[in-house]
Design a protein that fits this description.
The complex is a heterodimer. Helix content of chain A is 34%, strand content 26%. Chain A is α/β, with parallel strands linked by helices. Chain A has an eight-stranded mixed β-sheet with strand order 3-2-1-4-5-8-6-7, sandwiched between helices. Chain B has two domains: 254 residues, 3-Layer(aba) Sandwich (Rossmann fold); 102 residues, Rna Polymerase Sigma Factor, Chain: A (Orthogonal Bundle), CATH 1.10.1740. Chain B is 32% helix and 13% strand. Classes of the chains: A alpha/beta, B alpha/beta.
Chain lengths: 197, 378
């Protein structure tokens, strides 16, 4: 599992072995395959890009082509132990609806996202006066899939307002973990484990 | 298995049955025409059943005895293909109601010595599947590693998983649906009416005489349009005109000859079809498809059809297929998710409409190959 992207590695480490998961925006199924092979997880995926779906299915994974914004409504309540949304929240049309469905479908939810309040991004904005283009967020304003930029503090207050409990949180700068203190300023990525309050 | 007469090309067998039909009747004895490719392994775990579409047959990967053409799915089935006789014991059975050797309206009714004609019972997709199960029992095959089908073949694959959940480990359903829509039924009714309006149809009693070829050809022409896409037709024919027999190059006849290339193409499709297909079979099989609604016995809740299943499912649709559009595949996926079944689904892009599943589609092959291999490694 060493080759997994850092936020996925955090999720993989913290998923209970033998559990049932739904990976929303699973890409070509890298995390699902790792969880299946190393943690005997019964994994299902939802992915919008047909080429990614084809690759995932040809790896023997159960992946359905669909859109997080419209297709989560089709899943019954509580049918998964975890619903995972990695690096996808900021690309959804209605992140609030997506999160609602995740917490309905899964007993717990993992959400990872790039932190838009990280200092490099703040600096770029403050001194450059333009929408930041960084290694983590390499797109320009007109071609970015990230249509709902969010900061760690935004996300926390959203969770509070919506009665969602945080059961775990991890922060990353590059590939390195960092402490919770000053995360909103310092962390490039955040991973949250959530449960409906 | 060498020397076992039950396996091989062009097999025919009459079994006692009976098939218990959805209509309440029983049908016996049952004739089966089928082919097998590859060898059943020692633990009988490598059987793959291929289910054919409305006008398909058992010649999935060998020459058709009437047309002389290659099998209808050699792109999917054969050496080095996703369904490979080197790895699988492949079984392909002519469906009940058809006309290539399995019991159908053109078969001789042993109780009268003449063809059944309209005395053949009206059957359903479920009846076809129950009949196939009788043949598999005879072949000594309990569990299918996979059941695979496109279009009506996909309906059979779905029915297999619903009717015999313990006998199906994986199901591949391509360009298919869990029910016939009003539009599907409407197109089929046009075809049936064309056949029945042909005076030679004679209430189905035309065997030994001239067949209702004109009616069947029109039925095929109407259906063939539904297998293609508008973009595909436009690309292939546009508004281009035919060169006429008198040598006139591409001009209008100001008459009712086949001026347009698309007309000529459809007429050819209709005419060549009647050489290989029985009009009554067309009536019976289209009826079976129209009756198909997998959710009907479950108060309309499709998920209940899959409650007992442990099968893995792989569904593929094509974006230009308006006969069984992606939304129908999604409906099945939704039901499978609700039933907690392991389901994969992808919509592939192809300009060729419903027929895409029979054509060259590398992504389809890649998906089916990976899906089947993953099931074999479980």
């Amino acid at each position: 599992m060493t080759t997994l992207r850092s936020d996925l590695a955090i999720i993989a480490r913290n998923v209970r072995a033998g559990s049932r998961i739904l990976d929303v925006g699973c890409g070509d199924g890298q995390l699902m395959a790792a969880l299946r092979d190393h943690k005997q997880v019964d994994a299902r995926g939802l992915e919008i890009d047909p080429v990614n779906v084809a690759t995932a299915v040809s790896r023997g994974l159960s992946v359905v082509q669909g859109d997080a914004d419209s297709d989560l409504v089709d899943y019954p309540d509580g049918c998964f132990d975890y619903v995972i949304l990695s690096q996808t929240l900021q690309t959804t049309r209605r992140p609030d609806f997506v999160l609602d469905h995740m917490l309905r479908i899964g007993k717990q939810a993992f959400v990872s996202f790039p932190n838009f309040a990280q200092w490099r991004i703040r600096m770029a904005h403050m001194f450059g006066g333009q929408m930041p283009v960084t290694e983590q967020l390499p797109h320009r304003w007109y071609d970015t899939p990230n249509i709902h930029h969010v900061t760690i503090d935004d996300f926390r207050s959203f969770l509070k307002d919506h009665g969602v409990e945080i059961e775990g949180q991890w922060f990353l700068s590059g590939n390195k973990p960092r402490k919770q203190a000053l995360a909103n300023l310092m962390a490039e990525h955040a991973v949250f484990l959530l449960r409906r309050g | 298995m060498h020397g076992d007469e039950r396996f091989g090309l062009d097999r025919k067998i009459r079994l006692l049955g009976p098939v218990k039909l959805d209509s309440g009747a029983e049908f016996a004895p049952v004739d089966f025409a089928y082919e097998t490719y590859g060898t059943l392994n020692a633990d009988k775990s490598n059987a793959v059943l291929i289910c054919h579409a409305l006008t398909g047959d058992q010649y999935v990967a060998s020459k058709h005895p009437i047309t002389g053409k290659d099998g209808w799915w050699t792109r999917m089935v054969g050496p080095g293909k996703p369904i490979d006789p080197a790895r699988h014991c492949i079984i392909s059975i002519n469906v009940m109601g058809s006309c290539m050797g399995s019991s159908g309206p053109a078969s001789i009714d042993p109780s009268t010595g003449s063809p059944y004609g309209m005395a053949f019972p009206v059957i359903t997709i479920g009846d076809m599947v129950r009949a196939q199960a009788i043949l598999l029992d005879h072949l000594g095959i309990g569990t299918l590693s996979a059941v695979v089908g496109g279009s009506m073949g996909g309906m059979q694959a779905l029915s297999w998983a619903a009717l015999y959940p313990e006998r199906v480990r994986s199901a591949v359903i391509i360009a298919s649906t869990a029910r016939h829509s009003a539009q599907n039924i409407a197109f089929h009714e046009v075809g049936r009416q064309a056949i029945m309006a042909d005076p030679r149809w004679n209430n189905g009693a035309y065997y030994g005489r001239e067949a209702p070829a004109s009616g069947l050809a029109v039925a095929r022409m109407a259906a063939h349009i539904t297998y293609l896409s508008e973009a595909g037709l436009t690309e292939k024919f546009g508004r281009r005109l035919q060169n006429r027999p008198d040598g006139t190059m591409g001009s209008k006849s100001f008459g009712f000859d086949a001026d347009f290339q698309v007309e000529s193409y459809l007429r050819y499709q209709g005419l060549s079809f009647v050489d290989r297909f029985d009009a009554n079979s067309y009536l019976y099989i289209t009826r079976a498809m129209d009756y198909f609604d997998l959710a009907e016995p479950y108060d309309g809740v499709l998920a209940k059809a899959f409650v007992a299943t442990n099968s893995r499912f792989c569904l593929i649709s094509f974006d230009s297929d308006w006969l069984y559009p992606t939304s129908e595949s999604r409906r099945i996926v939704h039901a499978l998710n609700a039933a907690g079944a392991a389901a994969s689904f992808v919509e592939l892009s192809s300009p060729f409409g419903h027929d895409s599943f029979l054509l060259d589609a590398p992504e389809m092959n890649r998906i089916v190959d990976g899906f089947l291999r993953a099931g074999e490694n479980l």
